[in-house]
Design a protein that fits this description.
Helix content: 40-55%
Radius of gyration: 17 Å
Shape: globular
Strand content: 5-15%
CATH topology: Uracil-DNA Glycosylase, subunit E
Order of helices and strands: HHEHHHEHEHEEEHH
Number of helices: 9
Low-confidence stretches: 29-34
Mean pLDDT: 78
CATH architecture: 3-Layer(aba) Sandwich
Number of strands: 6
Length: about 240
């Protein structure tokens, strides 16, 4: 049944994005076309990251690394950050980490790649958010997650992309119904409760996963991290993902 549902979801999504790669604006601004890092399926967890290019040049990404690439390519900074983040959450239990990562759905919030998120790339990133929001909303609607975990919460980040896709007109850090807590070294974390179309879910926002080694100090004492950990542990104890 799960495989049948997965195929139906993929078919529905492909119908939504069938003309995506043919758009002139997509080709001109070099969006990468492999938008998912996992199979498209119902999941309790949707992980959304950023895709800054570290070579210093804007390049088309033709393959978004799959979660199955984590062990094959441990130098991938983003996925290594995911592993380290959840290993801390699960007190070093790597089996729980891999179980969660293998059940989650992965995508990027902004499908345009830039060398970094500096102001000189503001135009490309704004175009990327505008082009991506329809398809990101489609992913959210099809996956119907209970929890969205965003890694990246600056102006042009995964968190910004999620709220733009959800139709929010304010900047996410200006939303009144939020819980904000800085880390001990002043990186930002957020928690939001979202109600849309009879769908209730939580959005948790953390800094970029590739920089986890910088912002992870005392993360176990961070209230946003604690709330996310509590939700995940309750789900692990229940009937499964």
């Amino acid at each position: 049944m799960d495989k049948i549902m997965e195929r139906l979801l993929e078919q529905e999504f492909l119908e939504i994005v069938s003309d995506f790669g043919s758009e002139e604006s997509v080709r001109e601004h070099k969006l990468h076309f492999s938008v998912l890092g996992s199979p498209l399926r119902h999941s309790r967890y949707l992980l959304i990251g950023d895709s800054w290019e570290i070579t210093g040049e804007i390049e088309t990404q033709v393959h978004m690394p799959l979660v199955s690439d984590i062990l094959a390519n441990p130098r991938n900074k983003a996925y290594r950050g995911y592993i380290n983040f959840f290993n801390v959450m699960f007190n070093g239990n790597s089996l729980k980490t891999l179980e969660l990562l293998n059940k989650a759905v992965f995508t990027n919030g902004n499908w345009i790649r830039t060398p970094h998120e500096g102001k000189e790339h503001a135009e490309e990133l704004a175009i990327g958010r505008e082009l991506s929001k329809t398809y990101l909303k489609a992913i959210i609607n099809l996956v119907r997650p209970e929890v969205i975990i965003c890694f990246g919460n600056s102006e042009f980040s995964a968190t910004s992309s999620v709220f733009k896709a959800l139709g929010e007109t304010k900047n996410f850090w200006e939303i009144e119904d939020r819980h904000y807590e800085p880390t001990i070294n002043n990186w930002s974390t957020y928690e939001f409760s979202i109600y849309q179309n009879s769908h209730h879910f939580k959005v948790f926002s953390f800094p970029n996963s590739s920089k986890f080694h910088i912002w992870n100090a005392n993360i176990e004492d961070n209230e946003v991290f604690i709330h996310l950990k509590s939700m995940i542990e309750q789900n692990l104890v229940s009937a499964g993902f």
